[in-house]
Every structure is written in structure tokens, then in C-alpha cells.
Write a structure and sequence with these properties.
This protein is mostly beta strands and 347 residues long. The protein has three domains: 36-148, Immunoglobulin-like (Sandwich); 158-249, Immunoglobulins (Immunoglobulin-like, Sandwich); 255-346. Helices cover 10% and strands 40% of the residues. The protein has helices at 2-26, 103-112, and strands at residues 36-39, 44-47, 56-62, 73-80, 89-94, 99-102, 121-130, 138-139, 143-148, 158-160, 176-178, 185-192, 198-199, 201-202, 210-212, 221-222, 227-228, 234-241, 246-249, 255-258, 270-271, 273-275, 280-287, 290-296, 299-305, 314-315, 320-322, 326-333, 341-346. The strands form eight sheets. Strands 2, 4, 5, 7, 8 and 9 form a six-stranded mixed β-sheet that branches. Strands 20, 21, 24, 25, 26 and 27 form a six-stranded antiparallel β-sheet that branches. It has a four-stranded antiparallel β-sheet with strand order 22-23-28-29, with no helix packed on it.
């Protein structure tokens, strides 16, 4: 009997210890302390150069204190001085100090934020600490740094869009969408004009991390079912939020050309086809001397012309002239973020 009582006592002590441990895990400080950005310090000046591209930039910090042991993600953020972080740009994330990235990556973030190469600009950095959506983020104080970026071709974070429309090729560097603000919000166009209408969203030019949609509910699931555009094909505006793992697919628009220079005149679109390798809309047709525009769904609600003679299209822009009759190849290119361009070449 005495042994039984001892066993029961041990069990009760064990449950009590577990209960106390659980209580400790979920007890959040009423005044959590944010992290402290230790380095760089205010007044630091950085002049970046292409020769330094592979060198590392370290953001050193002391951790936040939530009053309990937590798996914390620390994100370095920046904004132009005086903006009060109303639209911060995420620089790099880490789980412990230091948060590190290359000079080349930092330079890209600065250019994406709008800084001009070879010009000094005051940039403020801070550190955000995140535990989970139920716990408010904490922030460090702001640190001011004078930065001079260098000139280089601007690149954006990207997602890859392999699908039946382009041969299920995740390595196609043309069938991608971009995050213009490097904020995990991606936007671009996908041209699904054939096949079974299915595609996926991949983090890289491979199948290592890919997302589909189980249940077709607009939520991304890793290794999930293929996303299907439905029965109506065309060009779709695709928006992806990788923080929330959601996506939105705009209505289908089937693009063509219309005008007195085209086979259908001003009454009917001559449809464009899809070049999967280059991710462009293309049409080869006999044209007469005259004018044309790009139009979708045989409707003037969606039309593009050209105002400046620079190959860039504007919504509702001016008619595009064809100087002489002949066989032409016309290409409509949507790949560059925020720009729609075209070429017209006589064969």
C-alpha cells in the first residue's frame, strides 16, 4: 500500500511539473521587450560596389523577450528616412543574430526601393520580431544609415509557373511572376491558351518546393493538387501572397489584333497564339497598310495602343500604323513587371 501511495504521489508530482511547464510556455509577458539592433549603428555610411557583391552584411541584434521561450523570427526592415516605416521593405529574416545577406542582395533591395545608383540616401533600418499571428510583433528602435548603391540590372524575387500550357517545365525562366517590392506579394500574367488548364506555383526552377490547391479554394498547399484555370482559356492576372499562402486568378482575356490592317477589320479580333518557350503572345498574319490595336475578348473594354513610338503599350492608347502590306509577325510581351511591350516585324 505504501508503494502504491508513493507511485501515486510521484505521478501527481509529474503531472504538476507538466502543468507548470505548460503554464510557463503559454504565459506571455504583459510588456514584451522588443529586440535591439546592435549593428549597424546610426551614423554609419555604406558605399556599395560591384566588387563587394559576394561579401556579407551583418545585422547584429539582441533577442526579444516575450516572457517565455519562443521560436522567434527576426526580420530586418528598411525604409527611406522620414517615412516612419509606413511601407517598409523586408531585407532579410533570421532566427538568431546576426541576420546576414550579401552586398549584392542588399544592393538589389535598395534599388527595388527606388534608390538611385551612385547617389547617397538616408535609409532607416529596424528589426521586427514575430512569434505567431496571435502575438503582436515587436520592433527595435530605428537606425539611420547613409547608403550609396551601385548600378546593376534590377532583379526581383520570383515564383515559377510550370503547367500543361508550357510543358510542365519548372526550369523555364520566362514563365514566372515577380515580387516587385520583395514583400512576398507576387503578381504577373500567365497565358493558358491550351492543354488541360492546370499549373503549379514553385519556389524555384525545380520541383523541390511546389504548391497546388487542394479543394480549389484559393489556398496554396505544398505538393497540393494542380491549380486549374477552368474551362475558359486566355491570359490571367495572377496574384500570390506567400505569407498567407493564398492566390487570386483574374478573369480570362483572349488577346488578338483588330483594325483595318488586320484580316478581321475593325469588327473581329484576329487571335494571338502562345509561345511557351518565350512566354509571349505571337501572331503571324498578312496585314494591309492601315492601323491596328491589341484587343481582348472582342471587346473595347480591354484594348492597348501605343502613344510614344517606343514599343510600350498603353491601355486605350493610339492606333498602331502598318506602313505597307505584307506578312508580319507580331509579339505581345507581358513579362516585365508593370510593362506591356510589342514588336512588329515584316517577314
Amino acid at each position: 500500500m505504501k508503494k502504491s501511495i508513493n507511485y501515486i504521489g510521484a505521478i501527481l508530482l509529474l503531472f504538476g511539473a507538466i502543468s507548470c511547464a505548460e503554464e510557463e510556455l503559454v504565459t506571455i509577458s504583459t510588456n514584451p521587450q522588443g529586440p535591439t539592433l546592435v549593428s549597424p549603428t546610426s551614423g554609419t555610411s555604406w558605399t556599395l560596389s560591384e566588387e563587394q557583391t559576394a561579401e556579407m552584411v551583418d545585422f547584429e541584434f539582441t533577442p526579444a523577450d516575450y516572457g517565455f521561450r519562443a521560436a522567434v523570427t527576426y526580420t530586418v526592415q528598411m525604409d527611406l528616412m522620414g517615412n516612419n516605416f509606413e511601407a517598409p521593405v523586408d531585407v532579410i529574416a533570421a532566427t538568431s543574430s546576426p541576420a546576414r545577406l550579401t552586398v549584392g542582395d542588399l544592393n538589389q533591395r535598395l534599388l527595388q526601393m527606388g534608390l538611385q545608383p551612385e547617389q547617397s540616401e538616408s535609409v532607416e533600418f529596424r528589426l521586427k520580431s514575430s512569434v505567431n499571428p496571435a502575438v503582436s510583433d515587436t520592433f527595435s528602435g530605428m537606425v539611420n544609415v547613409e547608403v550609396v548603391p551601385f548600378a546593376v540590372q534590377l532583379q526581383f524575387p520570383r515564383l515559377y509557373l510550370p503547367g500543361d500550357y508550357q510543358g510542365w517545365n519548372p526550369a523555364n525562366e520566362n514563365t514566372i511572376i515577380y515580387s516587385e517590392n520583395s514583400d512576398n506579394r507576387y503578381e504577373g500574367y500567365i497565358h493558358v491558351l491550351g492543354g488541360n488548364g492546370e499549373f503549379k506555383i514553385n519556389e524555384g526552377p525545380n520541383w523541390d518546393v511546389n504548391y497546388g490547391d487542394n479543394g480549389a479554394n484559393g489556398t496554396l498547399d505544398q505538393d497540393g493538387d494542380n491549380i486549374n484555370v477552368g474551362t475558359e482559356f486566355g491570359t490571367f492576372l495572377l496574384r500570390v501572397n506567400m505569407d498567407e499562402k493564398t492566390y487570386q486568378l483574374g478573369p480570362a482575356r483572349r488577346w488578338g489584333i483588330v483594325g483595318d490592317a488586320t484580316p478581321g477589320g475593325w469588327d473581329a479580333d484576329t487571335p494571338m497564339e502562345f509561345n511557351a518557350d518565350d512566354n509571349v503572345l505571337v501572331l503571324t498574319a498578312d496585314l494591309t497598310a492601315g492601323l491596328f490595336k491589341f484587343r481582348a475578348n472582342n471587346s473595347w473594354d480591354f484594348n492597348y495602343g501605343e502613344n510614344d513610338g517606343d514599343g510600350m503599350l498603353q491601355a486605350g492608347g493610339s492606333d498602331i500604323p502598318v506602313a505597307e502590306a505584307g506578312n508580319y509577325t507580331i509579339i505581345m510581351d507581358w513579362k516585365v513587371p508593370g510593362v506591356i511591350s510589342y514588336t512588329i516585324t515584316k517577314n
